[in-house]
């Protein structure tokens, strides 16, 4: 039995029309017709895809002396989704937008106490507003900004649900796409390194104005303004980290490299479980201490310290798994 007859037989045994098989293979119906009539022979990549799609061995398709279908037993391959060039571009575009929105939500969270800090300093200086009004306006702003951030997180995640199969690794790239993705990632690498380095520098330098102000015993108003400035600079750094990290992560996800390798994904799941318990406790402690003492100019140190501890614990979990 020749290849053309095998394709025809397997298609009919699955109950598919030529149009349905063509759609699954991302080719035209005319191509299927030519394959089945022996007017054309599919290339090796198409043959591999046919073997995965029908669940048979490539030997069965390629060797004429096989008369009976030899199944590979890899039923799970039928569930693989084939990623086309259009699907790849849609994912990368949506992923970049997703990163920008998540970064915006993070900025809202970081900047949420800024107005409270500034208004508290203004009220203590006896300028234009009472302490009760300053606290009320500031706390209301904190809740509104955090609520806005949560809404952004939920909506953005919902828009990426159509690409959930990429997270599970349940996909197959069309021929040639791997090379295109690697080229795009290589072209982006310079931007990734530059923006990451800038974010690190900003994080290192941002406390300097506040430290200098403390050394020279500046007024509470000055300290509060410098604290607000520190949070603003940190928010810029976080924006840089998230946006470039998300874009690079998109390339790695399609290539199943870096943090998206199977072993790394298992580690990420464990770290994610830890984060799900750790960060709510940190936020609750931060807000509780802040509201009880009303000293937002000091309590902010909880967040960077918590971030350092989280990074350390994550590294330990990674080392233990190795």
UniProtKB/TrEMBL annotation:
SUPFAM superfamilies tied to this protein: lambda repressor-like DNA-binding domains
Name under which the protein is recorded: HTH cro/C1-type domain-containing protein
Record's keyword terms, sorted: DNA-binding, Membrane, Transmembrane, Transmembrane helix
TM stretches of this protein: 102-122, 134-155, 197-216, 228-251, 271-292, 298-320
InterPro entries: Cro/C1-type_HTH, Lambda_DNA-bd_dom_sf
N-terminal signal peptide: none
Molecular-function annotations in GO: DNA binding
HTH cro/C1-type domain residues: 7-61
Origin species: Desulfitobacterium hafniense (strain Y51)
């Amino acid at each position: 039995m020749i290849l053309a007859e095998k394709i025809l037989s397997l298609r009919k045994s699955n109950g598919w029309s030529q149009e349905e098989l063509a759609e699954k293979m991302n080719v035209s119906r005319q191509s299927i017709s030519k394959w089945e009539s022996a007017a054309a022979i599919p290339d090796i990549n198409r043959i591999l895809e046919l073997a995965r799609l029908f669940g048979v061995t490539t030997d069965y398709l390629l060797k004429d002396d096989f008369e009976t279908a030899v199944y590979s037993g890899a039923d799970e391959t039928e569930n693989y989704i084939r990623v086309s060039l259009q699907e790849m571009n849609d994912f990368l575009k949506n992923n970049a937008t997703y990163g920008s929105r998540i970064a915006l939500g993070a900025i809202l969270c970081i900047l949420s106490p800024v107005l409270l800090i500034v208004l508290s300093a203004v009220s203590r200086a006896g300028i234009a507003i009472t302490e009760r009004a300053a606290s009320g306006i500031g706390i209301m702003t904190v809740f509104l900004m955090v609520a806005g951030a949560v809404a952004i997180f939920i909506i953005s995640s919902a828009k990426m649900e159509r690409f959930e199969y990429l997270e599970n690794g349940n996909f197959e790239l069309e021929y040639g796409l791997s090379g295109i993705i690697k080229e795009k990632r290589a072209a982006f690498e310079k931007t990734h390194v530059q923006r990451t380095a800038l974010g690190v520098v900003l994080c290192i330098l941002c406390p300097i104005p506040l430290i200098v102000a403390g050394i020279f015993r500046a007024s509470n108003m000055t300290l509060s303004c410098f604290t607000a400035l520190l949070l603003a600079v940190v928010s810029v750094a976080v924006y840089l980290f998230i946006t470039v990290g998300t874009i690079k992560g998109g390339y790695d996800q399609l290539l199943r490299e870096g943090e998206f390798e199977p072993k790394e994904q298992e580690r990420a799941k464990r770290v994610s479980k830890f984060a799900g318990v750790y960060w709510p406790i940190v936020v609750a402690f931060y807000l509780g201490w802040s509201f009880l003492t009303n000293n937002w100019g000091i309590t902010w140190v909880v967040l960077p310290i918590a971030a350092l501890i989280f990074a350390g614990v994550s590294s330990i979990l990674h080392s233990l798994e190795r």
